[in-house]
Amino acid sequence: MTADGGHDGETVRDVEIVTDEGGGEPPTGSSTAAAGDAETGRREYDALYDKYLRLLADFENYKKIAAREREQYLRFGNEELLKEWLPAIDNIERALHHAREHRAADAVVEGWALILKQCQDVLNRAGVTAIESVGQPFNPEWHQAIAQRKSKEGDGVVLEEAQRGYLLKGKLLRPALVTVSKGPA
Q1: What is the DSSP-derived secondary structure letter of residue 20?
Q2: CA angle 94, 98, 103 (to 5 degrees)
Q3: Percentage with pLDDT > 70 across the chain
Q4: pLDDT of the residue at 117
Q5: Cross-strand pairs, 172
Q6: Are 178 and 145 spatial neighbours (Cβ–Cβ below 8 Å)?
């Protein structure tokens, strides 16, 4: 060994560095076993820590999914109930149309109009909006064609609405049943 602590061509093998933290006992063969145990412990720790991080990430993802589902439930939870009300609204519209067409008493027409307005206000507060169809281009996402008719309007324009369609906060609640033009008359 040289004066600066280096080696002058000698090969050093199996050198064990021992600290005096263990109570001053001389090193024995068990210290290499302890080093192996420490390495095994470190690997187990790393594996458990990795598992912990994965579980933490899974839990965070679960919280995000649960929050998104809760928001969707609050936003669209009453969708089925609102769908059940749409035929009643349709019938009120038909009754009002029929009363006007057959010149019913003003009180009857006004009564049906007030009932329809009140029902529409309830739907609007729940986030339901009617799809405006007549005169618009046919949109297969919002319209269901039940007939085609030649027209001067051109091809693919909604001519009549047999049943109004509705959206619930931008999501289709019920498609409109429409008659679509199929070219010049």
Answers
A1: T
A2: 155
A3: 81
A4: 95
A5: 167
A6: yes
